[in-house]
Amino acid sequence: MKLYIKQKVFSWKDKFFVKDEYGQDKYYVEGELFSWGRKLHVYDMNQREVAFIAQKVMTFMPEFHVSQEGREVAVVKQKFSWFRPKYEIQGPNWTVEGSFWQHEYTVSDQGGSIQVSISKKLMSWSDSYELDIVEDKNELLALAVVLAIDCAVAQQNN
User: Model pTM greater than 0.85?
Assistant: First the structure.
């Protein structure tokens, strides 16, 4: 299953749709403009919140908590490293490898099976990403984890 994210270039707060492989809107993501730390709400097309991503403030390295239906399902933490950013995903115990700066990376489970591949689309006015999710049951969790990693990368770039 594939999802596509195209973020707006000049936006005061994050606000964008996630499309399915047929070009149909599947999710709507909206950030909070005035909050301590970054916060993203993920809604389905029935305007029901299906995931919430919140940055934990006052930490040395970026840390984001992912909740679904009011229950924490993952914590995405950037680990200290000298040359390349590294992330730990607690909860589903996934690992992340690849180039975050170029938005070309994979998220795998403990057995090494790829759960989602992320690639940045070139020749685009704004950032566009393709998420290739292996198992349908992990669609929402994979999307939320990728959004949390993107927030952490954006924070490091600023």
Answer: yes
CA dihedral 145, 148, 154, 158 (to 10 degrees): -150
For the chain, what is the HEC assignment?
A: CEEEEECCCCCCCCEEEEEECCCCEEEEEEECCCCCCCEEEEEECCCCEEEEEEECCCCCCCEEEEEECCEEEEEEEEECCCCCCEEEEECCCEEEEEECCCCEEEEECCCCCEEEEEEECCCCCCCEEEEEECCHHHHHHHHHHHHHHHHHHHHHHC
Q: Do residues 79 and 63 lie in contact, with contact meaning Cβ atoms separated by under 8 Å?
A: no
Give the integer Cα–Cα distance in Å for 77 and 58. 13
Domains in the chain, ordered, with CATH? 2-157 (2.40.160.200)
pLDDT tens-digit map of 15-51: 889 999 898 999 999 988 766 778 999 999 999 999 9
